[in-house]
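User: My instructor asked us to take a sequence, write out its structure as tokens, and then describe one feature of it. I'm not sure where to start. Here is the sequence I was given:
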Amino acid sequence: MTQFPVINKAADSRFTCDVDWRHQRGQALPSDLVEEAAGRLGVLALIYATTYFFAYFVSGSIALENQGLVHFLFVDGVSRLVWGAILSALVVFGISRSGRIPPDRMLDIGLLFLIFGSLGISGPTFWGIYPDAGPEFAHNRAFVGVPWDCVWILIFPVIIPNCPVKTLLAALLAASMAPIVTSLSIMAGATNPNIGHLFFWRYFAFTNYICAMLAWFGSSYIHKLGSNLVQAREIGAYKLQTKLGFGGMGEIWLAEHRLLARPSAIKIISPEILGSTLKVRTEAMARFEVEAQATASLNSPHTIRIFDFGHTPEFSFFYVMELLSGIGLDTLVNKYGPQPPERVVFLLRQVCHSLQDAHVNGMVHRDIKPSNIFLCRVGQDYDYIKVLDFGLVKSSSDEPYQDTSFTNPHITAGTPGFLSPEIALARTDVDGRSDLYSLGCVAYWLLTGVPVFEGESPVETAAMHLKDAPMPPTRRSEFTISHQLETIILDLLSKDPADRPATADELDRRLSECVLENVWNGDSARQWWEINQPV
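Assistant: Let's start with the prediction itself. The structure tokens for your sequence are:
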């Protein structure tokens, strides 16, 4: 087994800012954090527009008591600048919600908003300040306080991080808006020219520009944390990019091989799942290695491929899988409803191919359920089945029973709605017919949209698998199910394994002999995908 460290510092640690956010090549901030920051930009823009409208126009309108209100709202030059700032914020909000611009480009738009937002704040603050000040003003009176645009310059890079170089340039331009407005105000005569430009520029040097440098420092720190996070998300030759999902055993990430640029999925088993002590974790790690090797040895094209596996120094076990494009059978039924019998047979036969390969190699899946059967598009093949997650697989040999699922209290073997009676009884003589029972539950679900048994608790559901007779699917399905297909499903749901089909091959043969009203083939699948586009 190959052991991989969590952090791989062999790669060049330098980075640039103009990169493809989807692949993170050289970008310090991970793509999921960039997406979150882009989402926050829209919220910040909306807060800016709302707050500024109430702070300037509403309070100003009340103070005027309807005297010169129209001039204040629409004619006054400063008010028009404020309107422009508010409208620009609303535009940024709209763009962020449209989803048409990549998140990294949204962050660049955010820097433009930082500059124009600072101009919108500086306009009403510094235009026309001290119009009647005398020549002695600059010598006898200090201009004190921190302008509001400093607050804007400081908080923006923290909420919306970006490349430090870009942030510094944008912060300096944003800091320059107040002195530029003041200088223009002096030149226009709105501010008494006796005060002089130098007085204000000296003041802004100790407020706005210091805040701009602090903003750059904060941005650099956040970017460094992002760079460290990217390194921490490197497992051997793979770079973790986006979290695809998570469950009771850990997380699944979209990853990319450093050299091959091949997208993959990495499942990371969290250390807590493996056990609380070093000894227990080491033993659990060994079992996971055996399971990963077993899955990797399977040859059926309908079983998900395992490319690599290993563990980190922190005892997080991981394995690298092929990246699939499609949906689980649970999503298929939940989104599109029960499926016609001809399609169900088409899908079940592919699952049989995967299970037969596992069973003849002495392995039992033990957790066949809709979410572990993936409906894919592979090249030009549609409705292509991949059986996932052999994490609960065990040998069907006579060796002492050592299964990860039962040696750790955090993991439940099987899923109550699709649990075979023998697994519910925790029997040690479980063989491939247990998977066939679960597959019968899957077939029932596909045809009817409801589980075979549904108790008020997992324990009650498991008990129903032990003692209750299933209601025939013809009584719960909207489709016409042939007697032949219904008989197969009810045989699969037999309490006694001896009454079920003996092997997945036998089940496949019986399914192939089913007489169906309609035909489902590759053309039917392609037409369905072209209409529904589930990917």
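For the description part of your assignment, you could build on this observation: The two ends are 34 Å apart (CA to CA). Try explaining in your own words what that tells you about the chain.
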